[in-house]
């Protein structure tokens, strides 16, 4: 029976997604291409043998439009014969790209495939693909007559339902920064991150080597001084029970970044003399309440564990996307997972959340955590807009 293995995974440093951010001067296609090129060069594979490039991107408009994966593949120097496709499962887009790539290998449709992701939020601001238009339509509005809400309000509803305090949210966020800063200091990201040169403030090229949003000096006292980000009359009237605890400090920031993962069959890896890092063990995706929107990580964790025939105690490391601190804390409360095993090297609150690239970023981190701590199984799970969630279990080889 065929299996699907990860030969290698890389990501760029994560920059602040705003004008003046470390990567804001790099075109999204070129940023994406850098990760793909670095992956091909590091593994030494013949690029002509790549069967497909499957990439995630959320803001598929402007400089990330027109099937951006195809242009990134060409910008990376891949032969014109290598096809590419861009997928959108919102924040889980590149995790879904990994699933599609692995499933293609398992089915025998692919031997070698790259799953990648891109989001340049300094070039394509969050929500710009909607362009102020109604993307739900009248029938969805009829099904949810009270209306759906922005993700920040979903995060507030989660904090309220799970009775999470502002202090808990801020403590979680501060710990994420401390873990990420410590990981950088200890060289834990050395294998993950492929530096690149980007235009600096004066126009000269500057080598970008580290994640820009990590703040080692973050404290709960500093975070406590931030105002709630989503408090407004419209939401106070609709949800009078909310205390409004979600701030810019206990949420993921806006970022630029790219990631790329090389997936093959184990037979192909052996033929090419490549040593896989992990086997893609099990996958799951679920739909959940689109009002709470971000809680799908709870049922999809249960689903992927059941599909894998594993229990929570079998998992040595978890990567749970920190879209908002309340999301991960609710997941911890429901699953009973050991917090010491969750986002060991920090999470998106500190490292950043370049939407379409984050699934690949989490996978890159998960592989390194398993290797550095000699774990066997790792579980990655991401909440996604619209009430969706992906989960992936990998087995270190």
TrEMBL record:
Organism: Amycolatopsis sacchari
Active site: 91, 353, 383
Family: Belongs to the thiolase-like superfamily. Thiolase family.
Membrane-spanning intervals of the chain: none
Protein's UniProt keywords contain Acyltransferase: yes
GO MF terms held by the record: acyltransferase activity, transferring groups other than amino-acyl groups
Lineage: Bacteria, Bacillati, Actinomycetota, Actinomycetes, Pseudonocardiales
Plastid in keyword set: no
Sequence ranges assigned to domain Thiolase C-terminal in this UniProt record: 275-396
Protein name: Acetyl-CoA acyltransferase
UniProt keyword terms in alphabetical order: Acyltransferase, Transferase
Gene3D superfamilies: 3.40.47.10
Residues annotated as domain Thiolase N-terminal: 5-266
């Amino acid at each position: 029976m065929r299996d699907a293995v990860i030969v290698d995974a890389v990501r760029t440093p994560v920059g602040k997604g705003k004008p003046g951010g470390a990567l804001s001067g790099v075109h999204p296609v070129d940023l994406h291409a850098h990760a793909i090129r670095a992956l091909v060069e590091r593994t030494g594979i013949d690029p002509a043998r790549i069967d497909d490039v499957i990439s995630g991107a959320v803001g598929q408009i402007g400089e990330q439009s027109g099937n951006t994966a195809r242009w990134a593949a060409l910008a990376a120097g891949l032969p014109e014969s290598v096809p590419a496709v861009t997928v959108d499962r919102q924040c889980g887009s590149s995790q879904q790209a990994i699933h599609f790539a692995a499933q293609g290998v398992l089915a025998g449709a692919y031997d070698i495939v790259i799953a990648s992701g891109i989001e340049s939020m300094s070039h394509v601001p969050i929500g710009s693909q909607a362009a102020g238009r109604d993307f739900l339509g009248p029938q969805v509005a009829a099904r949810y007559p009270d209306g759906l809400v922005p993700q920040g309000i979903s995060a507030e509803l989660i904090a309220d339902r799970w009775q999470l305090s502002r202090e808990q949210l801020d403590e979680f966020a501060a710990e994420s920064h401390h873990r990420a800063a410590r990981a950088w200091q200890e060289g834990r990201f050395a294998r993950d991150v492929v530096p690149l040169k980007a235009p600096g403030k004066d126009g000269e090229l500057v080598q970008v080597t580290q994640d820009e949003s990590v703040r080692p000096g973050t404290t709960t006292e500093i975070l406590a001084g931030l105002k709630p980000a989503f408090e407004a009359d419209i939401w106070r009237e609709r949800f009078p029970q909310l205390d409004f605890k979600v701030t810019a400090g206990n949420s993921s920031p806006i970022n630029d970044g790219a990631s790329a993962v090389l997936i093959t069959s184990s037979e192909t890896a052996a033929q090419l003399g490549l040593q896989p890092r992990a086997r893609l063990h099990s996958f799951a995706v679920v739909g959940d309440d689109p009002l709470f929107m971000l809680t799908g990580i709870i049922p999809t964790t249960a689903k992927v564990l059941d599909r894998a025939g594993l229990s929570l105690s079998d998992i040595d490391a978890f990567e749970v996307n920190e879209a908002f601190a309340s999301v991960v804390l609710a997941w911890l409360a429901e699953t009973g997972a050991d917090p010491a095993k969750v986002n060991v090297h920090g999470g998106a609150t500190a490292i950043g959340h370049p939407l379409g690239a984050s699934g690949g970023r989490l996978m890159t981190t998960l592989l390194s955590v398993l290797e550095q701590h000699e774990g066997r199984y790792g579980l990655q799970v991401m909440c996604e807009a619209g009430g969706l969630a992906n989960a992936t279990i990998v087995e270190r080889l």
